[in-house]
Design a protein that fits this description.
Keywords: Membrane, Transmembrane, Transmembrane helix. The chain is an all-alpha fold. The protein has 5 helices and no strands. Helix 1 packs antiparallel against helix 2, helix 1 crosses helix 4 and helix 2 runs antiparallel to helix 4. The protein starts with 5 loop residues before the first helix and ends in a 13-residue tail after the last helix.
Length: 135
Amino acid sequence: MCMLWSWYLADDTQFYIIGAIILIIAVRHFNFAAGVLTIFMVSSWATTAYIAFSNNHMPNADDPFALFDKIYDKPWTRLGPYLVGMCLGWILFKTNCKIKMSKIFDDVILGTSCIIVCAGFSNFTFFRGSCCHYA
């Protein structure tokens, strides 16, 4: 492949077509479109998990692109993140970009951020030679 980023153009084109079809259906049959979107999302996550587990994938610093061709650049594993963005775009469109967040929501965001930071630091235990390596 002469242009290393060109794989994403094919994925993005497919996602745009799928997303447009789902949004057109959602205008008249919202529940059906939400069901199809949920099926696509769950199947994307399940496919990614299956590929990772069946190949005994363990992320590490030595070879970060170990399963690039099997996981990262395939459309069936990249569809989930695209659909999450599409859902957020739909919510912003329906609320006219005026989302009011409560104190509870702020606490959830703070808690989620703390969990993500802790999970990020715990990933250092997977790397060889890390100061946090446990026996």
